[in-house]
Task: inverse folding
């Protein structure tokens, strides 16, 4: 990755060439996403939590970035093994994205895939509690979503 280009992008976001508030939130979200993808869940969680609080405060009700951030925060909590805390964030995030007809299917599918991941890992940690059935049910929804977008 070209570091000078990345730094310029961060600088531009903070200087307000884009909307200053959303630019900062987008940069913070990108950092949280990167940390989740690197498996650095403990570092990602407080960053994504602050990003979510900021977006809930600044963005209008129903804006797609709020449920998308909820879903990503849920992913960081899955990585920390905090499944019960992740579940409502993931479910609310998916519902918020599903209710927005202008959002790309990609975001809906990724959110639903995180729900599948939650229940698979929860089942592995606590077998025989029905999480495998929830994972299978959510996986069917992923397949249906893929079919409907083709």
Result:
């Amino acid at each position: 990755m070209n570091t000078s280009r990345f730094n310029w992008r961060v600088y531009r976001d903070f200087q307000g060439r884009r909307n200053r508030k959303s630019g900062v939130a987008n940069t913070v979200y990108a950092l949280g996403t990167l940390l989740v993808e690197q498996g650095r869940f403990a570092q990602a969680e407080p960053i994504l939590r602050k990003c979510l609080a900021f977006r809930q405060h600044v963005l209008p009700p129903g804006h797609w970035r709020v449920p998308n951030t909820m879903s990503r925060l849920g992913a960081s909590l899955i990585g920390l093994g905090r499944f019960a805390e992740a579940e409502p964030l993931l479910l609310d995030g998916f519902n918020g994205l599903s209710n927005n007809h202008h959002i790309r299917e990609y975001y809906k599918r990724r959110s639903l895939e995180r729900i599948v991941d939650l229940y698979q890992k929860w089942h592995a940690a606590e077998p025989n509690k029905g999480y495998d059935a929830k994972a299978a049910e959510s996986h069917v929804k992923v397949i249906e979503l893929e079919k409907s977008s083709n």
